[in-house]
């Protein structure tokens, strides 16, 4: 659906050339929710501006549904851009227009008749859950409601792709979750492809199928959200995963656990949801004559399923413990020994 091929964008600044996006190649599949995460300055905004044709690449290409946006101009660019819609962190609503007139605006520009506009606006208001607010002005709405208007307006002309630029960053956690649920609902109901940029791993965990991690203009890691949460490779990715799992707390707990369970070995298992029912633990105990204490565990939900972490204390004869750990390494779970005798 969206293809970025060796995409780069360089800006000339007073300090010389600045590479904002550096040789990015990725594909967003039809119907997918794809997240791009990075800290401030990583190049996310530049990337999204390249995606909707607001910036021209220095090199490489952007193709949306077979049409190259990066090399189009004039009418061709305008028609290509109609397939791509966007919502923003600060909503970008027209403050002097009511909710229904804001949503109607792109339809007016597209030359849709008044009767058809009314019908479509009604449909969209229902879709985003704003019934009863048709005549309200943006200043009379909560942040979540404003973003619902933004979403309805973005969907008015039936785009093929929705781009979300930090769409929930100005909202409180509860409202964030409601807006994220609305995006998932729209993705499922309309089969709409969604590409979003964010600095919050919570957003990625909650709604994305796949994620690309950006650092200094480059995509440094990419994969299914489940995979990335389960086995992050790069340090930056690990830091993002910790945003959701809570690092200090976890490391404090681990230090505490080591103190509390000084004998045997402390092992961390990371497993994917549908493998949780496999009787790995009971086999382990039966086969190796070790004692297994479940010390701590949690499960995290993502759009691709759940993944869990389980801390075990394995105690017994040294040889039996080592064999038991070898057995775990041979299973389909990620196993890490976090303390030694
Ligand atoms: N028009 C421009 N001219 C010069 N430099 C720019 C321009 N736009 C972006 N940059 C630079 O490119 C780099 C990437 O910026 P970008 O805004 O894409 O990052 P970001 O990940 O979106 O960060 P943020 O979340 O803070 O917006 C930054 O160093 C920024 O200063």
UniProtKB/TrEMBL annotation:
Q: Does the keyword Cytoplasm apply?
A: no
Show the InterPro entries listed in the entry: AAA+_ATPase (IPR003593), ABC_transporter-like_ATP-bd (IPR003439), ABC_transporter-like_CS (IPR017871), ACT-like_dom_sf (IPR045865), MetN_ABC (IPR041701), MetN_ABC_transporter-like (IPR050086), NIL_domain (IPR018449), P-loop_NTPase (IPR027417)
Q: Which Gene3D superfamilies match?
A: 3.30.70.260, P-loop containing nucleotide triphosphate hydrolases (3.40.50.300)
Give every ABC transporter domain span: 2-241
Protein name per the record = Methionine ABC transporter ATP-binding protein
Q: Return any one Pfam family short name.
A: NIL
The scientific name of the source species is Paenisporosarcina macmurdoensis
Superkingdom, natural source? Bacteria
